[in-house]
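Q: Got a minute? One more chain.
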Amino acid sequence: MSGKKTFARVAISPRPCTPPTPAGRGTGPSSAPRDFADIAPWPRTMHQFARTSQRNAMPKSLQNPAPPIPPTVWMLGIVSLLMDVSSEMINTLLPLWLAGGLGASALAIGFIEGLSVAIATATRFLSGVFADWSRRAKPLAVLGYGLGALSRLIFPLAISIDQIVLAKALDRVGKGIRSTPRDAIIAAVAPPQIRGASFGLRKSLDTVGGFLGPLVAVGAMILLAGDIAAVFWIAAIPAALAMLVLVLAVHEPEPSRVAKRSGFRLADAFRLNRAVWAVIGLAAIIMLARFSEAFVLLKALEAGFAPTWVPLAMVVMHAAYGLTAWPVGRLSDRIGTAGLLSWSLVFLTIAHLTLAFAGTVWAYILGTVFWGLHMGFSQGLLGAMIAAATPDAIRGSAFGTFNLVAGVVMLVGNTAAGWFWHSAGSQAPFLIGAGLSGIAMLWIALRQRRFHL
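A: Always. Here it is, folded:
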């Protein structure tokens, strides 16, 4: 009985122990009880094990979350939004004004659109090389957006095709100057793991402007009884606001982030690797297949749209574009671009075939939806692929070369589309575009490994 009581008393009595002393400071084995030293680390070790297990169980996207998109990218997106509101208010009505008010043929409209792109590409190319040499992109962007805003004052005053060409040329020069430095700024401030999302965001905000611009144009046409010139005057307001945001809110990274250059060398634009040229070749085929949206707008009249409501076609197109550009950009950062680009060409093929045979308003709207899906799946990805394949020091030149080649091809494509429309009917350019889209898909299939950048 006494033995049991003694055992119980020992079992429930707290065992005296002293905290272990730091290594090298103890007075002997008794200073840190052996059983305490063995037991004390266990709770801490088990806690660490539990935390490690939880972390390993998390998806990798939660373990290493992507950094936020830089404010500069957001501001550039807002600038693009405002400028695109202005541009689309003009562009959605300009083909109608050329064909109806000034008597231009489809061939003339195609040539004007192609010439405008050709003028823009020359300035894009040179502005990219100059941006690399000067290591300053924002001044060029300000100049480009400023010229675009200035052109808004010419459109409402134009009374002939020549004056429209002058206004378009000034607008395209501005677009050519600003596009390359704008893309170079985004590539410089966006971390590599979110670069596709950053380009996609800028494109999405640009497309929101493309969505709002035609809506404003329709409302203005209704309120102003179809006075297109008055609508052109209103289009100057968002262009002026875009300039304010660009000057006050867009901050370019310091030149030190870009490698120093020894001087201006035009040859730098051609020191591009094979991966860049593969992307440029693919873009050339896509741009040849996807001619100007001016022909899509002219097709709206054949499908049964009244002139006042034609801009709504662009609302549908840009809605589909804007809803896909940013998500597709983020998806490309994870799974690559070749498959997504293939899907974009599938959508373009469907759009061409639908628009070629569209005899009703609803069939036409379906075609514009697929056209917008193609734009959302393709444009942001091409910019991200160029950025990923090019060294920092000549990235502006790479974007300039990319835009140059695409623009020259669009000059040929738009002029050819106008000629086919004029000589063989409105179905011809869309059917040819569908065939070229198939060639682009074959290009991707044959060079699949080169597009996994």
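A: The first helix runs from residue 2 to 12.
Q: Perfect, thanks.
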